[in-house]
Structures are given as structure tokens and as C-alpha cells.
Fold this sequence. Notes:
The complex is a heterodimer of chains A (295) and B (485).
Chain A: H1 4-30, E1 36-37, E2 45-46, H2 52-63, E3 78-87, H3 92-101, H4 108-112, E4 120-126, H5 128-140, E5 144-152, H6 154-157, H7 190-193, H8 197-205, H9 207-210, E6 223-227, E7 249-253, H10 255-266, H11 280-284
Helix pairs in contact in A: 2-10, 3-5, 8-10
Chain B: H1 16-24, H2 26-55, H3 68-100, H4 107-130, H5 143-165, H6 174-199, H7 206-239, H8 246-258, H9 274-301, H10 312-335, H11 337-343, H12 347-378, H13 385-416, H14 423-484
Helix pairs in contact in B: 1-12, 2-3, 2-4, 2-12, 2-14, 3-4, 3-5, 3-6, 3-7, 3-12, 4-5, 5-6, 6-7, 6-8, 7-8, 7-10, 7-12, 8-9, 9-10, 10-12, 10-13, 12-13, 13-14
Amino acid sequence: MNYGALIFLAAFLGLSASWFGLVLTPQIQLGRETQATNTVNTAELYPIARPGLASEGAEIYRANGCVYCHSQQVDQSGTQVNFVLAEVGTNPVAVAEALLKAKVGITNANALGLSGGVPKTILRGTSIATAKKAAKAVRDAGADGRVEILSVGPDIARGWGARRSVAQDFIYDNPVMLGSQRVGPDLANVGSRLPDPNWHLRHLYLPRTEVNGSAMPSYKFLFQQRKIQGQPSSEALRLNGEFAPPAGYEIVPRPEAKALVAYLLSLKAGAPLFEAPLSLAAVVAPAPATNSPAK
Amino acid sequence: MNATSCTTTSAAGSDPITREIDASGRVPLFFLFFGGAIWLVVSSIFGLLASIKFHSPTFLADCASMTYGRVYPVATNALLYGFAVPAGLGVALWIIARLGQTRVLQPGIIAFGAMIWNLGVLVGILGILKGESTGFENLEMPKYAAILLFISYSLIGIWTLLTLQSRREKSLQAPQWFLIAALFWFPWIFSTAQLLLSVHPVRGVTQSVINWWFSANLKLVWLGLVGLATSFYLMTRLMNRALYSQYLALFAFWTIILFASWSGIPATAPLPAWLPALSGIATVITLVTVLSVAVNVFRTCGKGCGQSENPAPGKFIAFGVMAFLISWFLNVVNSLPELTRFTHFTWFTVAQSHLNVYGFFSMTMLGAIYYLIPSVIGVEWPCWKPVKAHYWVAVFGILLFAIPLVIGGVIQGISLNNPRVPFADLTKSTLNFLRVSSTGELFILIGHLLFLGNFIALGLKLARLYLIPAGLGAIAEMKPAEVKS
């Protein structure tokens, strides 16, 4: 029996199904995504193409394989709906009574503390329907309140971002380096999390100067150790103690180091989008700095 | 058992037709396998360099080419493209010639293809060290190297398929099904990935989807098809009995083609939800592939599985099948949304991938090469003891590499999910596991040196047996000629 041609044809069809599903269809769905206005501030375009130095830095990031230890994608495990009282109005007692009457799960003891400072989150982790009900009750009583939807998850609690990453965040990246391993922290928002360029330069030169016991390799080849001639360079790294260069020498960043830092500072995927909404409060309030530089 | 006896453990000593078939592939197989042996050594040296960097961050910090992010992809590419793919092509060619009872067509062209392949890998690895990596995992080699690889694969693949076409034994066995699908699938996925990632890059995360699709199709589908074809064929040869069920083998074939080809997109990816969901479901279905292979293998060998008399090549194959079952099972675990939170972004995925590429595929190929080389070259391995030593060193190395990374990966994943654990502590908690796995890599390197050593010893034996007598013979023939003139 000779099924050669038949096997070839069947295997061809079977395998090509995955090509249609995982190459062609995503391209049709996502390939034409363009810069868009975001949900909170409709005048602002997102994302914004990287300026020249930062896109040179992306090449340094690619060439030196930073992607093998750092991901650039924030995950979120869910959302949390809160109800925030924004304004108490003239009659706090009426507001408290209205809230109790609306049966949104507020106990008497909680209701009594309403007259404190506003804005105040009175309902945490509730459903949208309940929060809306509370908002209506409060409004009817002459006060004002808002429903707040927050992203939650371990990545967000670490301060790696205010929301999860979505396809829209990456349309100007080439290559897109999402990463598959977190030997180091996620970098999707490192530009907003660690905005100091000098911190990044010192950290690249010798990571242990900034993060105690860091496992990140040193990128000394992006820097130059040279003799101080006349005045010390304004760009020289400020290194102390055991990390300092020998007397009469200074460490200055090469252009590659400056470009890489510009790229890192350009990593800010925080705009509120339709597919990853953020309440205004969450945008304004800084995320807890759990991965702040070690002292 | 007799450690130095070779006739019972290798393909040699068969009938003259088989010997002629084997000999016809001598030159191309030599280039594919000897090149592979060298790349294996390169791969483990770079792998070791990469893991030293975790323990000493300032090690070789002044040299751009030796930074972790360049050394690590060199190690993975040398294993994947330096050894796995060419070894798979060589073994596929041999199985196709053997099962089709036909000689290899145009061995010269295939050997030429093998040389270009090795050149392509060399150029690609130098490119990565120079900083010209594409930035896509499993596809790091720059465009110019990829072109060489594609040309080379086409030459080898076309003449392998023509060899299949010229077969005298017309009926197709299960291993041939696997190999036909694999042979044409690689150029498809490789050219798609190159065209849409390097030549005309698509926009945004579609790049990542294509990269994941390529990786899964190379590491699960291609390696799976070629590796299983080799295990199935060699099991029947070594034990001299038929496969328990051709139908179960074909069932595994179809599930790999239809479902494994859809896997690989992580649940956490920043994509429309249908993509990871569909991919996750397909990956879960590959569990039936694992089961069907397990039933088929255990039923085929029956009580013979754990035999201590199992010759060295058989040991490699048996270990490969076990690693296949474990690594594909871990792949399913890694795709379940509830569990992937604790395994994704950790060393767990690295261990799973290595168990598949190295524990399963490379071990199967090593077993096949040890089995077929004596018959193909026409000379027995000088000694089987280093072959057995290679086996035990490799097993020890793989276990020492993979087990700590699986455990360390899960611990890393649990800490990643607990934001109260500071990130620096999290990395530190995995360092001890990394130290043990570095030791494993050292053992794997020793195994690769033994493999290369076995090849060199065989070459020396070949020279002693043929070249020197031939040289003496030539001198003896020349003398009367000189007299004449």
C-alpha cells in the first residue's frame, strides 16, 4: 500500500490549521492596531513612538539579551470594585441613613464614621451593581460618590504596573521582547517606577551598588574607566567605598549605556485603555514601591 | 553481559543489502553527526559559562560577547540547531533508507547541505556573540545565518524525500509517517517565522504569537515527530519485535499534528483572551499523545523494558522515552491556568524545555547514532565502555539539571505570587537550586566530551584499519609502475 501522497496531504492540512489559527488570524486581528486615544484623557494619544536615543537603546537591550531575565508584561489576576465617597454634602446623617437603607452591606458602625475626611473608600471588593446602588443612594441624599475599578494581582501589588499589559502597549516595539523568565523584575513600567537615570547607570555598571546581593551581571563593557584630565567629567558615575574606581580615575558611560538607560526610562505602559481600564484615582495614586532601590 | 562485544548491540552484521544501504549514507551522516558532536561540546561550554554568571556577576563583565544575554542563547542555539536538527535529519535519512530498502539518493548533495548547515550555525553563533541576535527566543540567529540554514535544509530535505520516493518497500510504516510530516513542516515554520519576524516584521505582539507558534512547532511537533519515529523504529529493531500497535502510533501522530501544533502561548500573554485559551486547550489535549505513547511503548517492550542487558543504544532510547513522557506531561501542567501562575516566568519552563530538547530528543538521537554509526561506517566502536559511561554521565547530568530547576521554579513561582516577598530575596532563594543545576551541566559537558572522544577514537580506528593498509597497498602498487616507466 502506498499512502505517501495521502499522508502528505492530511499532515499538510492538519499542520497548516495551526498556521491559519496562530499566524494569520492574530495578524488579521492585531496586525493593524494603531495609535489610539485612551479612555481617560481623550486628547492623549497612546502609545507614543520612542524617541531616537531610546530606540537605539532598544537595540542594546536586544543585542545583550536582557530579555532572558526580564519580562515586559504585567499580569493581573482580577479587578476590584470599590465605592468611594467623594463628597459628604451638608447632611452626613442623611447620607449614612441612605447608605444603610440601600442595603449595600454597610453596617451601622461603619456608617457612623462617614463624616470623616473625604474621599473615603467605604466599600471594598464589592460588585459593580452594589457600588452603583450605593452611588445612587448617596447622590439622592445630596452627597457624591464614585465607583472605582482597580486591577489587582501579585504583579500590580509589587508595583510593576497599575494595570495588566495588553496588545496595544507593544505596537511600536520591534522586536517585541515580552520575555519568558523573571530572574529579574518585570520592566514594563520601569521608567515610571525608577525614573532616576543615574540610578540606572550605576546599576548597570555594578548592580550590587544599588541592590544588595543582586544576581544581575555587571555591564562594565558599557562604561569606560579613564584618567581624570583636569576637571572630572560631569557624567562620571558617583560610586562610593569598595565600588569606587582607583584614585585619579573616573567611570563614564559609553553612548550605548546612555541609550540603554533612555530605553529603560521610556518603558511606561500605564495609560488607561478601553481593554485595560483604570479609574482616575488609580492613575493618580502612586503604586506601592515594593521594588524600590535598596538603601 | 559482554561489554566489548559489539555485534549484538549495533546495526552491523546484517545482510549485505542492508549493509549496502547503510554504507550509501556514510558521507552525509558523518557530516551531520560529527558536526553535531562538536556543537554539543560548544553548547555545554557556553551553558556552563552562562550559569557561572549567576554565582559571580562580575565574571567576564568587561567583554560584551561574554555577557549572559549572548552566552545563554549561544548555548540553546548550538544545542537546537547545532545538534538536534541535523542529528534528526541524519537519523531520518537513515530510517527512510532502511525502511524503504533503498540507497540514499545523491549522498554528495546531502553532505554538501550538511556542510552548509554547519557553516550556517557557525555564522549564526558568531552573529549572536557579536550582538546581532534577532531578540526572538529559539530564533536568535541573524537573517544571514537563517538563509544558509534554509538552503541547507532544502537540499537535505528534498533528497531525503526523493530517497523516500525511490523506496522499494512500498508500504509505509508509522515512523515514515512521522518523518514525512516533520520533513516538510520545518521549512514552513522556519520560513514563516523568518519572513514575518525578520524580513517584513509584523506589528506588535503578533510577533510574539508567531515566535511562540514557531517554538512550539519546532520543540514539540518537529522534535516530537522525529524523536518518536526514531524511538519506535529502534525499539522494534533492538528488541526484534513489532510495535504493539501501529494504530496507537498513528493516533499519537495525529494528536501531535492537530493539537501540539497549537500549543505554546502562555496564559498570561498580553493578547486577546481567545489565543491563550485555545492554545491552552490544545496543550491539555496533548495528554492523550503522552498516554498513547506510554501504552504503546510499555506494551511493546513488556517485561523487557528494565532489562539490565539492554545494550547502550537501547538505554539511551529508553531514557529518551521516559523523558518524553515526563516533559510533555510537565508541558500540560504548565498550560493549566491555575498552575501556570506558579510555573510561568520561572526555571520550571526552562527545565521542561530542556527535558524535552535534551532529555528526550537529544538522548534518543545519541542512542540512534551509537546504534547506526558502526553499520554506516563499517567499523565497530573501538570500545563500548565509554558509550556506557556517556549514558550514565548524561543521565546523572540531566537529573541533576532538571530536578532542582523544577523544584526551584515552583518555589520561585510561589514567591512571585506573594508580593510580600521582596524580589531580591526571591532571586536569592533560587540560587542554591541553580548551583546544583550548574553541576548537572558539568556532567552533561563530560558526556559530550566522551561522545566527541568516541567519534575521534572511531576515526583513528578507521584510519588504522583502512587508510594505513590502503596506503601500503598503494605504495606496493606504485612500485611496479615506477619500474615500467
